[in-house]
Design a protein that fits this description.
The protein is α+β, with helices and mostly antiparallel strands. It is built from 5 helices and 6 strands; from the N terminus they run ββαβαβαββαα. It has a 4-stranded antiparallel β-sheet with strand order 3-6-5-4. It has a two-stranded antiparallel sheet with strand order 1-2.
Length: 176
């Protein structure tokens, strides 16, 4: 059975579960369950409001064999020939439509890419997809921004922009 962990503190509700699937519908279902069983319960019991951020983290399995070249080779080998490991983190800020049309709203999406290569050559890649709410969502506004819709947008980003970026690093698929 998959390990599951729920962490709650004064500013975050984090549910962590390992999902061994490529089926995006399974991830959407988990997002819906998190919203229904955790967030909705917190809203009712703790009168949760003032939501400042949604987030979903996608971790890829070790992927060295699927890459055309290692991250060290791709990003720094030309300048540092003896480099063996790499830890690279970069962010990309994306606009939110509502922030473009509503006065006083400065919402945005943030995507954090993390690429790590160990001395042994293992490669791991994470994509942390987030949406920030400025001003924070009150209880009424929160009801109009369902977490499951956010998860769906994160999956679309993963399958779109992220997949396009990753394909530049991946081995070329040869036609049969």
């Amino acid at each position: 059975m998959a390990q599951r962990e729920l962490k709650l503190d004064e500013s975050d509700a984090i549910f962590e579960i390992r999902v061994d699937t490529r089926e995006t519908s399974d991830i959407e279902t988990l997002g819906t369950h998190f919203s229904t069983f955790v967030l909705e319960s917190l809203r009712q019991v703790a009168h949760l409001s003032d939501i400042s951020r949604y987030g979903v983290l996608f971790r890829l399995e070790e992927c060295h064999s699927a890459l055309q070249e290692t991250p060290v080779q791709h990003f720094i080998q030309q300048d540092f020939r003896d480099a063996r490991s790499l830890s690279l983190r970069f962010t990309k800020r994306l606009p939110v439509q509502e922030a473009l049309v509503r006065k006083g709203v400065d919402d945005y999406r943030n995507v954090i890419y993390t690429v790590k290569q160990t001395d042994e050559g293992e490669v791991r890649i994470w994509v942390d997809y987030q949406e920030y709410f400025k001003p924070e969502l009150n209880a009424k506004e929160w009801a109009h921004k369902p977490f499951e819709d956010f998860v769906r947008r994160g999956i679309e980003y993963l399958l779109g922009d992220f997949q396009n970026w990753l394909s530049k690093l991946s081995k070329k698929q040869e036609a049969a």
